[in-house]
Fold:
Amino acid sequence: MNHSLRFSCADFSFPMLPHKEALRLIRMLGIEAVDLGLFSGRSHLQPEQILSNPSAAGRQLKKRLDEEELELSDVFVQLGYEPGDRAVNDPDLRIRQENRDRFRATVEFAHSMECLHMTGLPGVLIQGQPLENGLQLATEETAWRLAAAQEAGVTYAVEPHVGSNCATPEATLAFLKQVPGLTLTLDYGHFVYQGRHTRDADVLLPQASHFHARCGAKGRLQARFSHNQIDFRCIVRHCLAVQDPPRICLEYVWVDWEGCNEVDNLSETILLKRHLQDIAAQCDNK
Structure:
């Protein structure tokens, strides 16, 4: 194992700061890359803001990133305010068509910034929608998104999460089989939250092109470092072992959902970064 860990940090970890100051803070933490959140209604930059001219918006942001000496690691797009809003498997054909237009614009936006990775959501369980129909729509639309991203030279990943079609490692593997070439942005916290052991998710490591890391515990999607129940060792070993290591994004969020506004994001980001670096150093010494 002779690769160093590659870190990024989510700009949406610090929503109370102006975007430029959030980027500057990330660089001050010694982190060289940023994950950009495009969340309708709750991120620094809104998906709707890039629709009219995605390339121009991308060039403008790329200039800002260059000024702060930051690379762009991932564009995480969520077209609705929460996962069930404008979901990839929304039963309304009009909404799905609008989603495609917005996703195309987001791909153009990412491509203009020379960003090679995008993350989206895999779809949710929608009340009144038969499970089989919802899964079929989710896989069809995800396959379309994958092809649109690949055409632009961008890797596309979905993040398995609580309440989604991919809420468990088993459901995630089944979903991946239906969409060949799809990769994962993997956050073990969504499984640990449900009481699963971190080793249950290790089967997903080969499909991961990106990682979201924050401390969590059973019943706590985001927790303080002192309460953490996630074993990050397999993730670190995986990233050190592969030839082209994916980045680990330090992805604390600050939102009034599942208690995710009850930790000090700045301090917890520093503590988790040190913890992951300590694990890496232990691996190198073996």
